[in-house]
Amino acid sequence: MCGLSKAKEVVDMAVNFSHMHGSGSFPAAAGQIRVQCGEAHSASRTWRALRTKAPPAQAGTSCFPKTAPTCTAEHSKEERAESEAMRKCLQLQKQRNENISSGNMERTALRPLFRRASLHMPRLAPSSALVSQPTVPFRLRSHTQRNITRSFSSCYPRLRLSAMPHKEENSEFTPEFYPDFPSGPQFPTVELETISLKKLESNDEAEKDRAFEAFKTRGFVYLDLAGCQNGDTILGGSTDVARGAERTFSLPTEEKMKYQPTNKSLFGYKMVGATNADKSGTPDTAEFFNISKNDMIVEDSKMTRQWPEVVLQHKPLYAKYCKAAHSTGMLIMDMLADKLGIDREEIRQRHRIEEMAGDHIRMTRGPPRKTAEMPEIQTPSHTDFGTITVLMNWLGGLQVWSESSRKAGPLEPDVPGEWLWVKPKPGCAIVNLGDAAVKYTNGVLCSGRHRVIPAPGEQGKYPRYSIVYFVRPCDHTRMKTLKGHGIPPADDMEEEGVEAKEWIYQQAMGLGSKHLGK
């Protein structure tokens, strides 16, 4: 019971914190744990026994003792262990109180407390006593989590926990253990501009100028996510989304195949080998799952397709991630519109978050490298189809072509240049423009050509996970050049243009995708 008690106390800290701020519910970081406060009850006979040895808590305060009971040799081993756990919890609570009194603790600071609690949650065996306890609705990620959540529900009848993805014992997504990106002439890398999202939000003209120039010449930038709410959501949420991706890809193949795209949709599962890596038909080596933005941000009854339960369990996380990434993409597009003399509304009406569009989170898993001689192609050479892309990855593997390209489609063999590695940069997303941005601006902006292979050096021994958010035009908007003082005239300016959904579908088919519905 030591671990469960410690976890319970950390939750109790959160309950008190919520009461202090006059709120019955609050988000912990990226909405990972929601708490609706209620009266705390004892969790076990051991817990009750220990409470009786300490002064009773006053009304409106934590039910946890102010001091840990002193145990002697007469006490059981469990009680002595419980006392030690309580002592450590009280140290945490003391630190929390000091932080609150000094104004140094915000609600997002609860996130590491809950993470610390999860480290001490015991692995409970199935128990009919636990099963029989009245519980509130909750979504589960594992048998262990089910038992723990039931235990907490019995402790807090009006306490609701929404479990979020976490690191499993045998997880293959372990960014804390990844080796550094290798150095040396055999690993040529590209130098990308690092743009501050915070400075773009504050309308810093010098930063906007640097970003505009980068998107005209390379089409790729590092986006420093520090210091702003959307950046924090993307940075913190991407790890949780990746853990959700690991669980999704661990489903049996026959189960994943039930969610292949249909009816010209790009949403759902793509198995390994479903895309041609080159003109000779070499199969790609990565699998991915595209999760529709529109289905994540609406209630379940309004979703347009079926999703695996493992996806629906974490729908609030995915919805929040979609909104933050979409907002970030539109901030960048606003900046580009201003630089080119395009009315912002011309861009925004083509990318309204509530409208049906091809926007989605793409979870990708690429296998470790098999050979040192020939790189296996996880994602073949291409330019992105949409308007703007926000990528989070933890291992190398992404490569860009050394020469800028403003032509959609596969890379022609006679185009000069070489592939350059893009090193992951801590605290940064990798942002690039897609073909829609090139189309809207008549080639002023650049859609950088890229591909993905296994990570280099020692990093190549690990499976490669990446989380991408694609901002794409709304399905029924027309693809044509927009008007602006910085855009040269084009023949299609007065034409109606093809609908974005059809345009993107044809782009995907041209890439050699064999898994799409027709």
UniProtKB/TrEMBL annotation:
SUPFAM superfamilies: Clavaminate synthase-like. Residues 357-473 form the Fe2OG dioxygenase domain. Signal peptide: none annotated. Pfam families: 2OG-FeII_Oxy (PF03171), DIOX_N (PF14226). One of its GO terms (biological process) is small molecule biosynthetic process. Belongs to the iron/ascorbate-dependent oxidoreductase family. PANTHER family: 2-OXOGLUTARATE (2OG) AND FE(II)-DEPENDENT OXYGENASE SUPERFAMILY PROTEIN-RELATED. This is Fe2OG dioxygenase domain-containing protein. It comes from Hortaea werneckii (Black yeast). The lineage of its organism: Eukaryota, Fungi, Dikarya, Ascomycota, Pezizomycotina.
